[in-house]
Amino acid sequence: FENSLDKSVPEILPPALDASSEPPPLFDGVTRLYTYYGCPFAQRVWITRNFKGLQDKIKLVGIDLSNRPAWYAEKVYPTNKVPALEHNGKIIGESLDLIKYLDSNFEGPSLLPDDPAKKQLAEELSAYTDTFTGTVFSAFKGDAVKEGPAFDHLEAALSKFDDGPFFLGDRFSQVDIAYIPFVERFQIFLSEVFKYDITEGRPKLAAWIEELNKLEAYKQTKLEGTKAQVVELYSKRFLGK
Question: Which residues form a coiled coil (predicted)?
Fold first, then answer.
């Protein structure tokens, strides 16, 4: 099982398609993940794909969100958002739904344990993701320390099972995937702009981040220049800079 984590070979990412591009041959039997390489929501599904070893089964199609092609909303996904999965003649969206969909409908290591208590925690934490991100984003507009309870919630959740460093103990799961793209960005922004360390006084969170940074499936979705992009994007969005 452990070895299956590191079989992923870093892939050459296809260039993102913009308004001047032609659409791929849609609904031709190829499974495609429409993504934006810098989007945390899309990153969730990208990590899932890599962890399950589906690089050959699911083709990445980058979309340039700043200059998106008209055909994307017209022919692929009317909401005009990423991620979206083209599979078996239909399009499926919403990142948390897609994590579950990939886990249920494709081969590769399962991302949910059989243990009922762990399954229940997985459901609770999946339901909490929007509250978590909303709390932290709102704190960016004022006092960064106000987001403390959101990270305390994660620290407490990581303390529920003592058989491993992940949310569900010894098993990397859908829950870890749901949170890491956002925690990564929040850690960067709070550290760089507010000089606030989210891991201080939260040893479980620190150990979790360290463990995830060892996983090839996740590391391959981290892009060079993410730090600068996050600081610029969030500063503009929340601080008006």
Answer: none
Task: Characterize the bridge pairing of strands 58-62 and 31-35.
Answer: parallel
| DSSP assigned state of 74 | I
Distances (CA, A) of 66 to 10, 20, 39, 49, 199: 26, 12, 12, 25, 33
Cβ atoms within 10 A of the Cβ of 128, count?
A: 18
Q: For the chain, where are the E strands, in sequence order?
A: 31-35, 58-62, 84-87, 90-93
pLDDT single digits (tens) 52-69: 999 999 999 999 999 999
Look up residue 194 and give its two tokens.
């507010």
Residue 142: pLDDT above 90?
A: no
| Confidence grade of residue 200 (pLDDT, cut at 50, 70, 90) | very high
What pTM, to 2 d.p., does this model score? 0.94
Distance of CA 178 to the CA centre of its chain: 6
| Rounded Cα distance, 33 and 8, in Å | 17
Q: Identify whether the C-beta of residue 83 lies closer than 8 Å to the C-beta of residue 42.
A: yes
Among left, alpha and beta (phi > 0; psi -120 to 50; other), residue 94 is left
Question: What's the pLDDT tens digit per position in 88-107?
Answer: 999 999 999 999 999 999 99
CA-closest candidate to residue 69, choices 120, 15, 114: 15
